[in-house]
Amino acid sequence: MNLMSPATLGQLVVSTLRAPRPTFRVLLEMGLPRDVLWQALTLVAVLSLILSVAVNAVFVVQVTGSEQVPPEEIITLSPLMVGLIQFAVLVVSVFLIDWVGKKFKGTGSFNGAILAVTWLQVMMVGVQLVQMLLLLALPVLGSALTLLGMVLFFWLLTNFIAELHGFTSLGRVFGMILFVMVGVALGLSFLLTLVGITVPR
User: Fold this and answer.
1) 167 with 106: CB under 8 angstroms?
2) How far, in Å, CA of 49 to CA of 51, rounded?
3) How far apart are CA 24 and CA 27, in angstroms?
4) Predicted model pTM
5) Is residue 125, in this structure, part of any structural domain at all?
6) Using one digit for the tens of pLDDT, what is the confidence trace for 103-147?
7) Between the N and C ends of the chain, which has fewer C-beta atoms within 10 Å?
8) 198 domain residue, yes or no
9) Helices within 66-138 (DSSP H only)
10) In-domain check, residue 12
11) H or E stretch at 195
């Protein structure tokens, strides 16, 4: 199976939406080397960054153009900073999926964790692309897709982790994801407070 083929990628994307666990199992059984997985994660992170910048640019133009918000009140980060933050989040996610899963007696591998994050990001890049097109054509639907994208994100992540580590209960996996996310958020908040960084209100 040639993953770089547009036709193959399209089939896998559709298959993932229909049956996420079996499709992810097929990807796992391909046994891709770790260096290839890291390269794929880096590539998809770059694509996600490009689309994020594009979607943000469209959003800023629409908001400022409609005079809902003055341009000077739109706060944006540099693309480099956004890219570094996104990639750091992806890498941390890989280690968390591997470590936390094994703490709960999961049977997944580290390579599988990289694959889970990479393929999830591929799916989210597709959502970003559709969102950008909708923002240009139908802005109202573009906003609604953001919510749908969040639901899809958690649904796919839950299924990927369950398949990777051999868990049977999707509800417990989802609860574990929320628990870890809250823990990480609280930990980051505590560290930022220690170094004197506060979130502006």
Assistant:
1) yes
2) 5
3) 5
4) 0.85
5) yes
6) 999 999 999 999 999 999 999 998 888 887 877 777 777 667 788
7) C
8) no
9) 79-103, 110-137
10) yes
11) none
CA-wise closest residue to 160 among 38, 52, 20? 20
CA separation for the pair 191, 160 (Å, rounded):
30
More confident position, 41 or 70: 41
On the 0-12 / 13-18 / 19+ scale of CB atoms within 10 A, 32 is: middle
155 occurs within a structural domain: yes
What angle do the packed helices 110-137 and 139-165 form, to 10 degrees? Answer: 170
Q: Which residue has the higher pLDDT, 141 or 91?
A: 91
Per the structure, how many domains does the chain have?
A: 1
| Alpha carbon of residue 1 to chain centroid | 24
How many CA atoms lie within 13 Å of 88's alpha carbon, on the beta-carbon side? 6
CA distance 112 to 37: 9
DSSP helix, strand, coil percent of the chain (3-state; round to 5): 80, 0, 20
Structural domain harbouring 148? 6-167
Q: How far is 145 from 163, CA to CA, in rounded Å?
A: 26
Look up residue 67 and give its two tokens. 């005079």
